[in-house]
Amino acid sequence: MRESTLYLVPPKQLHVAILMDGNGRWAAARGLPRSAGHRAGVEAVRRAVHAAPSLGIGTLTLFAFSSSNWQRDPQEVGALFGLLEKFFFSEAFRAQEHDVRISAIGRRDRLPSTLLSAIEAAETATAQNDGLDLRIAVDYSAREAMLRTACWMISSTEVTQREFSRRLAEVTHSPAESSDVDLLIRTGGEQRLSDFLLWECAYAELHFTDRMWPDFTSADLELAIRDFHARDRRFGAAPAALANVTAS
Fold first, then answer.
1. What is the pLDDT of residues 92-132, one digit of tens each?
2. Residue 147, by phi and psi: left (phi above 0), alpha (psi -120 to 50) or beta?
3. How far is residue 45's CA from residue 215's CA, in Å, rounded to a whole number?
4. Catalytic residue list
5. Could you tell me the strand order of the sheet in which 14-19 lies?
6. 52 phi/psi in degrees, rounded to 5
7. Class (C level, CATH) for 14-231
């Protein structure tokens, strides 16, 4: 990918979240097992991570395994966990070269001990890095996290959005306060949030693409970022043009 010059010095580091959908369908279209699609998806993750900083992305959150995915075939789940384990171990070394901090968000009590060890090793090894914040959602459910946080907030003396975000981050094992998502991308042609970062996506811009995740390139990511910057984000306020007319 040619290095973009548009967003090397962005006014704000963006939080981009990606629903990496389409691995299984990508594999099926090629007569391959679903696990082959997941393996190809790992390479797409590496492309996105490499491209993110030059596009002004400060935080990249990737949905790797939903709490609903436990319903899938145990062999597929096991194969996916094996890939995630290898990813966390291998990316910890790559991350040191590129100043990437790696963390996992979601439940940890149901994960295999080997995967949990890989996650903890990657988090420890990259904790001091202050470049791209790469968050991988594993055994994650936004609804469950929000419900647990709401129950926790019953005893709180500070009932504010800021406090809710802080406690939500603790519930999901996020190393920092849960930040708003600026742009949510979903590949694979589906157009829904699927229980991903519901609190954080309250004002997120949504970008849907038919591209299957294994085929998603750095150029596709740049296209989504360009689309994001072309939008008028008002957060409930009147459009700038209309506001000027009303004021005059």
1. 888 888 899 999 999 999 999 999 999 999 999 999 999 99
2. alpha
3. 11
4. 21, 69
5. 101-105, 133-140, 57-66, 14-19, 183-186, 205-208
6. -55, -50
7. alpha beta
